[in-house]
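The instructor's notes for this session suggest beginning with a concrete chain rather than abstract definitions. Hand out the sequence below and ask the class to guess, before any prediction is shown, which regions might be ordered.
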Amino acid sequence: MKFSIQRALSYHDQVHHYLKDMIIKGEYQPGERIYEAKIARELQVSRSPVREAIRTLEQEGLLLIDDKSRITVYEPTIKDLEDIYQCRQALESLAVALATRLAANETLELIAETLREANHQFEIQSCGSANALLHLNTKFHDLIIEASENIRLQKQLLDLRSLTFFYRSKNLEKRERSFDIISQHEEIFRHIQERNETKAAESMKRHIEADLDYLKTVLFPSFTENP
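After discussion, reveal the predicted structure:
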């Protein structure tokens, strides 16, 4: 991957973005060990912004640092996947119920526009569509979470944000799966428009359960084949 440092942003932010992108895209494999000095040489920066970026990614859960200061890329486990998605189910079901009650018409239009753009990207299948769908998927959930107006809930989901994005990227690798996700989002939005809190929450719960089931088959096929 070609990458060059820009002076407009802090080195820390740029290195953080670069490393996160490498992890999400699988350029750094789960469990792979990475080295501060090597990254600094590759990006032609000092080790200080690299160290800061690594600390940030450790806080986000995408990098692990052991007691011997060895740095490795987050490696999914079925238990961690289940824990994260159980939290998401509980929190985002509540978020969508609150959003259904509280969201202004302007917010509903933003969600509708996000769905329209997702359908457009799905139909045109351009070289950037997969990445666009990933970000539109995230935006759909973010708009609902923000519309809940529950700051405590938002903070708890923020703690899971980077790992959620990591798993979401694996969830959208196949075209047929993207179609299912868009359809589920449209169902959730329909209930929001109807101001039906119960059905919106139930749809969100099923949607996240479907994500979990799919990710298990993708990331842990031997486990799902031989439970």
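Then share the key points. The beta strands are 33-34, 63-65, 71-73. Residues 97 and 197 are 5 Å apart (CA to CA).
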